[in-house]
Structures are given as C-alpha cells and as structure tokens.
Amino acid sequence: MASENQNKRPFPHNNNNPTTRASPTCPSSIKKCIGDEKMVGTANNGRFRQAFSVVNGGQDLGPNSAPASNAGSECGGIEFTREDVEALLNEKPKRKDRFNLKERCDNMVEYIKRLKLCVKWFQELEGSYLLEQEKLQNTLDSAEQKCNEIEVLMQNKEEELNSIIMELRRNYTSLQEKFTKEESDKLAAMDCLAREKEARLNIERSQASLSEELARAQRDLLSANQKISSLNDMYKRLQEYNTSLQQYNGKLHTDLSTVEDELKRIEKDKATMVENLSMLRGQLTMSRASQDEAIKQKDALVNEAACLRAELYQVRDDRDRLQSQAQALTTDMVKYKESSEKYSAELDILTTRTSELEATCSSQNNQLKRLHTQLATAEEKLQLSDSSALETRTEYEGQKKLINELQTRLADAEFKLVEGEMLRKKLHNTILELKGNIRVFCRVRPLLPDDGISTEGKVFTYPTSTEILGRGIDVGQNGQKHSFTFDQVFMPDATQDDVFVEISQLVQSALDGYKVCIFAYGQTGSGKTYTMMGRPGNPEQKGLIPRSLEQIFQTRQALKAQGWRYEMQVSMLEIYNETIRDLLSTNRSSSTDNGVAGKQYAIKHDGNGNTHVSDLTILDVRSAKEVSFLLDQAEQSRSVGKTQMNEQSSRSHFVFTLRIFGINESTEQQVQGVLNLIDLAGSERLSKSGSTGDRLKETQAINKSLSSLSDVIFALAKKEDHIPFRNSKLTYLLQPCLGGDSKTLMFVNISPDPSSVGESLCSLRFAARVNACEIGIPRRQTNNNVRPSDSRLSYG
C-alpha cells in the first residue's frame, strides 16, 4: 500500500513565506516551526525533544538571521520541521507495479538524496551553534574582565572616600575642641565683667558717702572720678570683646554645619557607588546563566544528532529489506518462466522482457552499491569530523597547559633574574665598600620644551651589552663618541621611586651606625634640586631627602620590636658666597639683611673624624612630618635667583644633616649614625648665564668652591700627601665624607640639551675621577659601654 506522502517533497517549504521559513541556526521542534516558543513532544520511541531555539539570549531569530556559513551551501535556502523529518523517515515505497523496478530505484535515489540533504543541514546547524557558543564565551570573558576592573576601581574609590571621611571627622573633633575652649574663655570674661560691675557699684557707694564731706575731700573725689573713668573704659573694652566672641561663636557654628553637610554628601556618594557595584554583579550573574542555557541547548543538539544517526541505520535496514524483496521477485520470475512453457508464443516476449528486467536490476543494484558506498563515506567523514573536533579540543587543552607552564617558568626566570641582579648589586656594593671607592650614579633629565634639538642625532646613547647594561653612557660631540661607566645610569624615563630604590640600602646604613653622605653635582638646570628635594605638592615626585626620611622613621618603628630605641636630630645650612648660613635659625633674616654680617659659624673636626659647626641650630625630631615642616622652612630661606639658564637657580650649597643615636635596651649596644644629603649649587658659564651684579658674585663663589672640590678629587685620585680641603668652606665641611670612613655616593646630573653637551662632558669626566677615588673602608660607630655625656651627635 503506497503512502500518502510518497509523491510529496518532504523538506523544502517556500522560503518567501515568513510563517514557514526558519533560520539554519534555529531549527524547529518536532511539532512546530521556528518562532514558536513552546516545548512540544512526540511519541517517537518514547522520546521528547525540545524545540530548537536561538542560543543568543533565548529568543528566536528572524527570517534573515541565518549565519554567513550557510550561504552558498547545498541546503542554504532549505529548512526542516519536525513533521518533515518524520514524513521523510516514515515514507514507504510506491507499489503500484511490483515488477517496475526502475521506478522503484528512482524513488530510492530521490529518497536517499533527501536524506543526505537533511543530514548535511543538521551538520551545518551544529557548526553554526559551535561558532555562536565561541562568540558567547568571548563576550562573557570580556564582561568578566570589565567587571573585575570596575570592582578594583570601586574598591579604590571606596578607600579614598573612607580616608576623606576620617579626615573630616578629625577636623570636626578639632573644631569642637576649639569651640569648647572659646566657651570657657567667654565664661571667664563674663566673670571678670561681673567683678568689675561690683567694683563700680562699690565706688559709687563710696562717692555717695563722701559727697557729704565734699569740701573736705575734693582731692579724694578727683582721684575717685579718675578711677571711675578708667573702669568705664575697661567696661567698654570688655563689651567689645564679648561681641567679638559671639561673632566667632556664630562662625564656628556655620563651619560645623558646612562640614556635616559635606559628610552627608560623601556618604550618599558612597551608597550610590555600592548600588552600581551590586548592579554590575547582577549583570555578571545573568551572563553566566545565559552561558549555561547555551551549553544545555548544545547538549540537546548532540542528542538530536544521535537520534538522526539511529534513524539512518533504520533506513539502511529498509534498503536491505528491499533487496530481499528484489530477490523474491527474481524467484517469482523463474516460476513464471516454467509456467509459460505452455504458451510458446508468449515465451519469447517474456524472455525478452526478463532480460531487460535483469539488466535494469543489475544496473539498479550497482547504483544501490554506489549509494551505499557514498553513505558509508559520509558516515566515515562524520566520524572523522567528530574525532577531529575531539583531537582539536585535546590539543587546545594541551596547548593551554603548555602556555600556563611556560608562563610559570617565565615568572620563575624573571624572579631569578631579579634576584641575580640584586645579588650582583649587593656584591658590587660590597666590593666598592671594601675598596673604599666613592660610588657614582648618573642621571639624565628628560628634554624640556625650551631645550634645543641636535642636528647630529642623539647626544646621549646607552650601551645594551650585558656587561655594562644600565651602567654605561655614551656622549657624542663633533662626531666623536666618549664612553663612561658608573655604578648606575638612570635614563630620562626613570622615576623618583626608581632612583630611591637604588640608594635605599645606603640610607639604611645610617640607622646601622655608619656615616652616609649623598650629594648631587651638575651644571645649572640639570635637575639636582629635583633629584634631592622633588616637586612640592606631588607625592609621586618626592625627592631623595623626603623619601629617605620616610624610610628611616618607618624602619625605626619596625625595629622597636627588637628592642631598639632611636633619637634623631636635624640641622640644615647653606654655603652662600663662602659664608655659612643657618637655615633653621629664628633670627636669620634680621642678621643678614642689607649686607649686615650675621653670626659667624666655624667648622671644627675632632680626633674621631667628626665635624662640628659652632652655634648651628640642631633640633630634636620625632616624626617625618616634623622634618618635612623644617624642610619647607629651610627651602623658603634658601638663596635662589633667576638666570638665563634657569628660572629658579640655587645660588648656594644646601646641606641637610640627620644625626641618629640608637640603643638596644636588651643588649645595651649603642650606635651613632649620620646622614648627610647635599644639593650643590650648579656650575655655569658666565657667557651662558648672563649673570651681573650680585648674581655675578654668586657665580664666581660657586665656581670657586666647585673648583676646590675638583682639586680635592684630583689630589685624592693621585693619592697625594696633602689634600687641599681648606681651600673652601664646602670641601672643608665635606672632609669626613671625601677623606674619612663614611659611605659616600655622588649623583652627577646631566642636561640633555645639545647646547650644554660641553658642560655635560666635563661633569661626566669629573664624575669618572670621583668614582676612581679611594677614601677608605667605612667604619661602623658603636659603643657597648655607656652613652657619651654630650647628647648632641657629631655633624659628619
């Protein structure tokens, strides 16, 4: 019995009909097409299947949403519904004429073609779903990364807001204390006013009693009137004072309300930030749920493909059954030949027809074999694609593990490289300490807008060889290259923190009981003051002096657990025109104005290698904030001036000294350390600076002292018997640092301006000579017995 669907084409609906057309990425369920959001089941061996819905957000795509991967394929414009697949699988061959094998074979060929087209459509659908899954995974990864960045930003913002709130609360507490103090002063003034009123009443009563004896007591009355007038004046002043106190009280109330409003606003901003963070976390949860839904739909597609494979096996069984039926027909034909012997006339016709049928059957059998071979090839390709996908995933996992392993090895190698570099620097510093050499660091400042541009290329280059990497610098002048090597070379992009990291261990030596001296040398405008002091108001650009103080006080706090107690003293001076000036003196301005000679300071060295400056102000300090305040005070008192080379040129040598006395309460060990941080005035040529008048005298004094410093360095390099330390106040003050037992480091600051290459070359040559000087092995100052009677420590 022929099926009703035998002559119907089971799969192509009209693509122009929007009610029946579906996207290749959105196949229909068993009982409906794309666009229906229901879950429909069918009684197919007891299985229930879910409708194919779009992975992207759980909504169906429109008719034009097919992916580009299906364009131009064999089934690019064909969609299948569940009814189409069932009709294709349940279709039975037409049996009008059981002997018409040719028609049956044509039907079978058409049927197999439709099966192949259906299988290919499902393969393309599975590929599109895999691409969509990868896109969703990438989107989810980017969303998670963005959410993590927002969380970090929110945490930083929250910490900043908390710090602002704490600062406002502290201000609020201080204002309350001031208000309480003003109230107590007001009450005291009121009591005083009441007493004055009572005294006035007493005087008035005395006046009434003395009025009866007016003639006899005129002199007494005159004196009483004078007292009354003075009391009235005092009463008026007290009233005015009371009024001012009331106004001040009102102002304090206004400031208090303003601070409270600001605190409420900040708390409201904090709440808003927390709400935004929770909203972003919700979006992340939704993204993860969407990914889980996509994974579930992928599993459903895999199950659907398995069902289709089972149905293909069933079709192959049907084909075998048809072959057996063909064999049965051949047997019937033989029987008919035996029975047709009676009809000789019809025998020839039947024989001819039988031969034709046998030839047709043979050709159909060959065609069936070819189709069977093609089907087997398609199945093998499907298996190969599955195994290839599995191998690709396995290879991806292996590559991922290999990448993680390589990243771990790279991190270990970088860590070992950092450790090796630290060990090299430590050993290098130890060698220099044993040799007693002065260490030299070179720093090249960045180019400024006012600097010129060299026509011969770069003025400074930095060698990249392993032996001198980070320690060498080459200078090009007139086609010649001059090479220098120092303990460290900082390129223009080096930050203040990078520079301080290299000297932090040297600063630590001061707490260990050593004499430490760090001074900056270079021409005007090369960045010496910036290196030592930094830029005020910018924490990231703090100089070596503020950073050194922070490290020392932090380390002092950490060493309390080990029983160490430290006392520290600070002094600051400048050498201006060969004259010492105390920058912390309270009467400094009055003693130096109008060229009047101030206090005379004398430099003295004792037998232990310590230096003292007579009458120099030395202050005890307990925190880094105290020292920062003193640094600001000294910076305002320092002599600066404007030249053609620098807007604010230092016109004096600045010397900062921190004296450290430490005692270990458990071991009774005592140490005495000194930290000298010196910002030298810049050398300059009169032809370039354009100095006149007082600036000319300052330039001459600066160049003279730096020339004396050069003479001392030459004498030390040649190991002469006489070192001319007394030729200037600067060299005499630095005598313990240059010729004693201290740890000394010099910063040579270089300007990249091509017009200053001559001065830069001179500075580098001088630094090379300094680096070759041997001043002796540093000696630690300890005392295990008793503390010296003089509580003030030595200068150097």
Overview of the molecule:
The chain is α+β, with helices and mostly antiparallel strands and 796 residues long. The chain is 56% helix and 12% strand. The protein has 14 helices and 17 strands. The chain has helices at 82-90, 101-210, 218-339, 344-435, 496-511, 528-533, 544-558, 588-592, 624-637, 686-689, 694-718, 729-733, 735-739, 757-771; strands spanning 439-444, 460-461, 472-477, 480-485, 488-490, 515-522, 564-576, 579-582, 603-605, 611-613, 619-621, 640-641, 649-650, 653-664, 670-679, 743-750, 782-783. Strands 1, 5, 6, 7, 8, 11, 14, 15, 16 and 17 form a ten-stranded mixed beta sheet that branches. The protein has a three-stranded antiparallel beta sheet with strand order 2-3-4, covered by helices on one side. The protein has a two-stranded antiparallel sheet with strand order 9-10. Helix 2 packs parallel to helix 4 and helix 5 (496-511) crosses helix 7 (544-558). The longest helix is centred in the middle third of the chain and has 122 residues, at 218-339. The chain is elongated.
Assign a percent range to the helix content.
Answer: 55-70%
Averaged pLDDT? 76
User: pLDDT below 50 for ≥5 consecutive residues: which ranges?
Assistant: 1-74, 590-596, 784-796
Roughly how many Å is the radius of gyration?
50 Å
For the sheet with most strands, the description reads: 10 strands, mixed
User: What portion of residues belong to β-strands?
Assistant: 5-15%
Structural class by helix and strand composition: alpha+beta
Tell the overall outline.
elongated
User: What is the end-to-end distance?
Assistant: 119 Å
Number of strands: 17
* Number of distinct helices: 14
Keywords: ATP-binding, Coiled coil, Microtubule, Motor protein, Nucleotide-binding
Family: Belongs to the TRAFAC class myosin-kinesin ATPase superfamily. Kinesin family. KIN-14 subfamily.
GO biological process, one term: microtubule-based movement
InterPro entries: Kinesin-like_fam, Kinesin_motor_CS, Kinesin_motor_dom, Kinesin_motor_dom_sf, P-loop_NTPase
